[in-house]
Amino acid sequence: MSNALFYFFAFRALLRRTIITACLGVVCNAAVAQVQLVSPPDDDPQRTELTEPFEIIDGIYFVGGRIHRPSYLFTTSEGHILLDTTFDESVPEIVANIRKLGFDPEDVKLLLSSHAHHDHVGGHSNMREITGATTVASAADADVIESGGKTDFRDTGLWPPATVDRIIVDGEQVKLGDRVLTAHFTPGHTKGCTTWTTVVEEDGIQYDLVVLGGLNVNRTEPLIDNPRYPDMPQQFAWSFARLKVLPVDVYLGAHGYWYGLNEKREQMLAGGDTNPFIDPEGYQNAIRFFENAYLERLKNDTYDDAE
Ligand code: ZN
Prior knowledge:
There is one protein chain. The protein is 35% helix and 20% strand. It contains 9 helices and 12 strands. The strands form 2 sheets. A 7-stranded mixed β-sheet has the order 1-2-3-4-5-6-7. The protein starts with a helix and ends in an 8-residue tail after the last helix. The structure holds zinc ion.
């Protein structure tokens, strides 16, 4: 491609993004549900009640039975990708949801994760056996997934150890059929925490989608001078810095409340002209919220060591 052509396409892409962002800013202010970034209490229906599976956008489905701990199915022309399996005991719910949508669990070819904690990879072993899928993880999280949580720096929550078949590096693309997912390492919450991005299309417009891997400072562990994770504060700072500059139109995450899954789902069911999950402003607000919580912990590193 000539230089002139290259600059033409680069400029056109930049212009498109600017126009979309400007339009969405107006739409979002008016239409998107107010997101409450508060973890629901133990008896909240978001944690306790099963939610029907549904399509979020462009072949990406919520299949992980509970709003609080979602599991995502990315369908492709060559089989499917499943991101997070939640708890071991929730695997039958996820499998049933995949079937309910008309897909075959045995068509799940890749098993990804947001981060190596029991509520996200607890079902990996079981799901790998049912689907025959290839498990994919960062080296740091793979070590913890394969130990069933025993090698984590945090003492809470063990799970059935699961084999990791493929180790990925930062920035690596995972491809299946017509779907490409890119791994962005965002360590801090776990050492190998991974944020995934892809491009989706709705009504002829392309959008950048992100699934946030983990943003919370663990409340059961010291952030500063943690002998089992000495550079945790620096890694969190590095992760926030890179998340702030990611191009994002649609954001999802390892927990529903991070992006208002409950509210946006209800808004979607109520109907409307725009997909409520297209929410670039909400993304920036969420990153700021979690970064501020991290900065507060840097000032006052109180944690709950009772667990
Ligand atoms: Zn976690």
